[in-house]
Each structure stands twice: as structure tokens, then as C-alpha cells.
Design goal:
Shape: globular
Radius of gyration: 19 Å
Strand content: 35-45%
Structural class: alpha+beta
Number of helices: 2
Distance between the termini: 40 Å
Helix content: 10-25%
Strand order of the largest sheet: 1-2-3-4
Length: 203
């Protein structure tokens, strides 16, 4: 539910944008559009927990860990990639001793215990979906909702981006070795169920 004051401000911004587009005031359009697109907020990502610590990602580039008493155990910051269409909405995952998050088109995997960067790589495709922690061929892995899958330990690609034939923006769920997701591609939508490989080298 959007608070009424936020709704009213968004409406005012959108109304002003409509007028500015007519007058071609490009700098003001950029400023207001950046505010409107980032309305998910800097703290929209859902934190992770291993029941000992809480791990949080903030969309201004901060990744941090806290114990259950609220004491910070580590914190780090990566460059903010700038405003983007639809803002930032991806939530991180915790698996295999790695805290893994997406910012812009960059994946960051941190050693959950120390906050040291374990690996970093391009996502390979633009996405707003969240990571899904799972087992892939016996390996701890994360599935990114555009169809890519990466090994948690070193970021090795286990499945090619885009292989699911479209965006899976709602976070998929995994049950008994099967991944279930709602796929979108252009004007087509569909619900899919995909069997995950149970042995190394499977696809």
C-alpha cells in the first residue's frame, strides 16, 4: 500500500513531467524522472539471515552485515551505477557462505563471514528480479530471474542468461528439485516448471 502523501507527490511529479515534456525542459525532466523511477527506495531489497546474522543490501551501493543484537559486523560500498528505468528492485541471496547481490548489471558476491569480495561479474542481461538460492547439479548456486545460474563459490556460469525465453520478474520458487516461475516476453506470459539438474554437469 502506497501512503497517501507519497501517492499525491507521485501524482504531482507525473503531472509536472507531462507538462515539461511539452516544453522540452530536459534537465528538469531528468531530475524529476530520477526521483519517480527510484520510488522503490534505497532499502527496498529484502535482507537475508542465517539465524546468526542479518545481511542487507541498499540500492546506493552499500552491503552490510549485522548480528542479532544490531551490531554491525562488516560494511562495504560499491559504486552507485546511476538512476535506471524502474529503479532497483532486486533482493540478494545467502547460500554457501556467500552473500550475493545485484546492483545495476553487476553481481557482487561477498564472503558472508568477513565481508571480503569473493567474486564479481556482469549479469549478462538486464533484470529487476531477485536471486533464488538453490542446488544446481549438487552445487550451491543462485538463479537470476532472466534465466542465468551461477555457482555461489566462484561465480562460474552454470546456465546461460535468457535461456528461459523471457523475463521472470516475480521471484521463482523451488520445490523438490523443480523451479516454478512466471515468464514474460513481450505480450506473452506463461507459467513454467523447470526440472533442476541433480548431478554435476547436468543442464
Amino acid at each position: 500500500v502506497i501512503p497517501v502523501e507519497v501517492f499525491n507527490k507521485r501524482k504531482a511529479v507525473n503531472d509536472k513531467l507531462a507538462g515539461l515534456f511539452q516544453t522540452a525542459d530536459s534537465e528538469e525532466v531528468k531530475r524529476l524522472n530520477a526521483w519517480e523511477q527510484n520510488q522503490p527506495g534505497w532499502a527496498c531489497a529484502t535482507p537475508c539471515s542465517d539465524s546468526k546474522r542479518v545481511y542487507a543490501q541498499f540500492m546506493n551501493g552499500i552491503f552490510a552485515s549485522y548480528d542479532l543484537e544490531g551490531n554491525r559486523t562488516w560494511i562495504t560500498k560499491v559504486p552507485f551505477p546511476g538512476n535506471r528505468h524502474h529503479g532497483y528492485s532486486s533482493s540478494p541471496a545467502l547460500i554457501g557462505g556467500r552473500f550475493i547481490g545485484l546492483l545495476g548489471n553487476e553481481i557482487y558476491a561477498w564472503d558472508a563471514a568477513t565481508g571480503k569480495l569473493a567474486w564479481q561479474k556482469k549479469a549478462g542481461t538486464l533484470t529487476w528480479g531477485s536471486f533464488v538460492p538453490l542446488k544446481w547439479g549438487g552445487e550451491d548456486a543462485v538463479f537470476l530471474t532472466e534465466g542465468a545460474c551461477f555457482k555461489a563459490s566462484d561465480g562460474a556460469e552454470l546456465y546461460k542468461p535468457g535461456s528461459f525465453g523471457g523475463s521472470i520478474v516475480p521471484t521463482p520458487v523451488v520445490d523438490a528439485g523443480t523451479l516454478y516461475g512466471l515468464r514474460w516476453h513481450g505480450t506473452k506470459t506463461g507459467f513454467g516448471a523447470y526440472a533442476l539438474p541433480s548431478a554435476a554437469g547436468g543442464d
